[in-house]
# Entry
Amino acid sequence: MILDGKKIAAEIRGELRTEIDAIKASGQRVPKLAIVIVGHNPASETYVNNKLKACAEVGIEAVKIAYEAEITEQTLLSEVHRLNNDETIDGFIVQLPLPDHINETRILSAIDYRKDVDGLTPENVGRTVQGLPSIISATPRGIRELLARYQIQTEGKHVVVIGRSNIVGKPIAMLLMQRPYLSLPGMSAASLGDATVTICHSKTRDLKSICLTADIIIVAAGCPKLLTADMVKEGATIIDVGINRVMDERAKGEGTKGYRLVGDVDFEHVAPKAAYITPVPGGVGPMTIVSLLQNTLQAYNEHTR
# Structure
């Protein structure tokens, strides 16, 4: 079965729209998100525009704050501090990646964790690890929500996570190994958790053997078609986080640039063996954006409580 992130994200946006309409009808201000972008990275600009469009669809007020790539780290830190202290802003993100001369860790660490709707500050990551209320990183939250909406239980299952990034690999591992009573706010199924999780990466030996023992495989390695059919047991659930552009002569045509998007999974050959699988595009990607909206509403509720 295809895990249709596009469909589930649309359902969640409808739920958010209803809740925000009720806020507006009560005479209260609506949630407000700020998005800071530095430079003109085409992929980043596309992501930001998609986020702004999604905010408009559900009724979240959003503002884009753009800086040239030459901005100093100190100037960007000053902007972060300004947003931390702006009572009209419920949450904000600094779009990554940043130019090489800016220390991403220093910037993220300066964000007030209560406004950190990307869930990337040390405070939110630490609270997530401890099972405390936190703002969860958007992609892991989206994955967990997708599993919940399709009623895919993780209790007692062996989950293999390929990739150890701070944005996806580490936090999704922490979420899925949590005890159910430590489930975090806003998730649709408290029973998700209690998994046995193995984290693999570029230095892992005999990745194939490890994957063949997995009930659920989450691939976030940034390597096209890394997971092949001979690495997957029958009936496994496959979550593909990868988004890779590969050149393809067949993709050329009017309005195209001769490339297509593929995931970290060899979808064509893995799908027949999988009980559930996410497509690329249309799987985890839409869930990441809608999770940012959920996080913004969560931050608003905490801010206005």
Q: What stands out?
A: The mean pLDDT is 92. Strands lie at 32-38, 61-67, 91-94, 158-162, 196-200, 216-219, 237-240, 244-247, 259-262, 276-277. The first helix runs from residue 5 to 25.
